[in-house]
């Protein structure tokens, strides 16, 4: 069976991927972990004497996991797939999107609380959950590791501490370096020990490749589609599929001080919204900042032409674009007209010129 480096070299030889020195350095680290896991699996089982006394002789340190972070389109998920696919079936492993994993965590805690015989809190449920996870998976691979919710932030430190103590090896990809996780979040100081734990238990790799492979997709397809209709809808579908790497999309809710922002479709850090969902609902600047912090690419679909009677919606659109612009988010739009012809009212005419300028800049080469 090929190790991650051999799989990477095979893909280079076939032309599936292009040479990238930063990716290759990351593959070397993944191959290190692969070899340590194989060596660990080949160790003979402990003798009866060792099990009774707890003595195991001189043991090599447990393998360190890997936290692979970097910008959009740098190949993080592809590299983790190489690592995961290279591991033999004899090593218990699981690859899961981090969002899906957290849903499972919350479901377990809820069911644990609902059980008539175990009406306990989160602190009592987490050791049982960690034990269950550890029995099923020695290696956990998380795609798109990120934290935006205070409840998740409070759970993670306690859960991962137990997982690491039980010998679970974690490999994850993220758009954020550990020190930027949950940045600006409520009661973030309580989350900082978890960041320290990650840096102790995992090797932090910055995939700072100069190549943005998703940018090539945008260069081919474009970022602003008009007029509205079947062809534009098909182009948006095609672009979403390409930017989300064909992964299965899901819906989720973002929580902002008790308010919820419904996200109808998301995958791989790409979120898809209808204009009506973001701008015809009573969302404010703080809601849009949360969207901008959570996703690296945002689709805004079916923007209509608007006049004075839609002044509330146009104001929300201006706030939304400001938030996405300041956060350097990639924006994919479908609209009834070019930016300069979307608004024909007078009350926001001057302010909307800045929005037009920003929309045009966000379509330019090199954005974000």
Element order: H for helix, E for strand: HHHEHEHHEHEHEHEHEEEHHEHEH
Fraction of helical residues: 40-55%
Largest sheet: 6 strands, mixed
Give the total of domains. Answer: 2
- Kindly state the mean pLDDT as a whole number? 87
The general outline is: globular
Give the strand order of the largest sheet, numbering strands 1, 2, ... along the chain.
Answer: 6-11-10-9-8-7
Instruction: Provide the structure class.
Output: alpha/beta
Tally of separate helices: 14
CATH superfamily name of the largest domain?
Answer: P-loop containing nucleotide triphosphate hydrolases
At the first level of CATH, the class of the largest domain is: Alpha Beta
- Just name the CATH architecture of the largest domain: 3-Layer(aba) Sandwich
Strand segment tally: 11
Distance between the termini: 40 Å
Strand content: 15-25%
Radius of gyration: 23 Å
Q: What is the fold named in CATH at topology level of the largest domain? A: Rossmann fold
- Uncertain stretches of 5 or more adjacent residues: none
